[in-house]
What does this fold into?
Amino acid sequence: MDLGIKEKVVVVMASSKGLGKATALEFAKEGATVIISSRSQQSLDATAAEIKEASGNQQVFSHVCDVSKEQDIQEIFQFVVNQFGRIDVLINNTGGPKAGGFDAVEDADWYKAFDQNLLSYIRTSRTVLPYMKKQQFGRIINISSSSTKEVIDGLILSNTFRAGMVGFSKTLAREVAKDNILVNTVGPGRFGTDRVAELDQIAADKQGVPIEQIIQKSKANIPAGRYGDPEEFAKVVVFLASAANSYLTGQSLVIEGGSLKAL
It folds into this structure.
């Protein structure tokens, strides 16, 4: 299948590691021009070099961006437009917010999670849409969480703002479909990332058990019997963002190995 991605300009936010990095790599393998971002230039340099070597694609560029800062968002997309003249695909991604239940988070935590995990997606989308409308082509994929389908205990901030992200994405998808711009949300279940390792360690510390016990219990609740490989997640994102997907929009998908019981 020709995904129609070769030479498309793809921006992947928060992509120096984890699912963002895996997604950037898959786009690079398909021949896209890929721009990665994170808050650390050192991390970006290392990741860009790794993606170039693994994909054989030298069209991998980087730009520092703290997604919670509006000025940073404006600067990265101005860089992309100045360098390449277009923006075809936007992959919105951020690190997860602070873990904890209602009593563990304060107003400052709520504001920070809003800025990072919802407002940043709104700002990036607002910035790229004029270019996508002019092109009459665009794909926006918002990386969320499995909590959009089934809340996760002890993650009240994620449960709240990821749900808001789905509402935003669905509404935006309906407004821009006429311009051949498709907007979808993709939520990961448990994948082999630093974020999942962090959450497993928090659970182990709270319960006073070895982290291996937490991992074993988590895997037992996944019909596939394992944590996902980030590459498996990235392949779905690449398809949704490609020209091969010409009609699916406004959807909230979860990739989780069958672990959720919700319909």
